[in-house]
Amino acid sequence: MSILKVDNLFFEIGGTKILNGITFSIIKGETVGVIGPNGSGKTTLFNCLSGFNIPQIGTIYFKDKDITHLPAYRRARQGLGRVFQNFAIFKEMTVLENIITALEGKEKLGPTFFPWSKKNKQNREIAYEYLKKVFLEKKAEDKAGSLSGGQMRLLEMIRTLAFGAEIFLLDEPTAGVSPKMKEDIAKLIQVLQSEGKTIVVIEHDINFIQKFCARIIVLDVGKVALDGPPETVRHSKELQEIYFGNIYSSCHKD
Predict the structure, then answer these.
(1) Three-state SS for 169?
(2) pLDDT tens digits along 88-116
(3) In what order do the strands lie in the sheet with 215-220?
(4) Which CATH architecture has domain 2-251?
């Protein structure tokens, strides 16, 4: 059963075409990597999926519902989670408050103003459990802005889980993080997989994503150029031509 389906997506800005008829579907529980050279349309695709861009042509289905023109916040409430390349956490809040905010948003209750309330206590306990999943419980009362880049990424991902996401759109989750944090992010992705979550991840490092992706989609000039298992994609002549173009072709003439 497809949880996400993209049908003939076109998007342009100021006459410049960025997406040129993208079509694919993703099965519930699948983990899919998205790669491609700079300017191939990866982040624009995620913007369209999450509601920050509206395509001029094409349709996006999430859980068999047409969400093409649905606002971003309504997509999030339906279970479509986005983790941005640039950190989107509340840096002036504590680490714990970031998770509590997600829990309150999920329940549509608004802020719990009274710290002595039963609901506030419950949410704090639940939030701590989420932080334990990413080993951030000792940072619970620290300002989120004081975390390292890798820790911020983990916080953003676990906050998305706390909000109730069923599908995770991860835009270069390992960009600018240390090798140790890269391993921790990979472990969290594996935790999400074990919980049956669907994951779509933009990543330049094919060695990283093939650890947990059974499928890779390659974008080029706003189109799906390749779609298949990591090893097949990795060793395809088409992939080399996409990244190296005429240099590759001139070196491999018959």
Answers:
(1) strand
(2) 788 999 999 999 999 988 776 555 545 65
(3) 80-83, 167-171, 198-202, 31-35, 215-220, 223-228
(4) 3-Layer(aba) Sandwich (3.40)
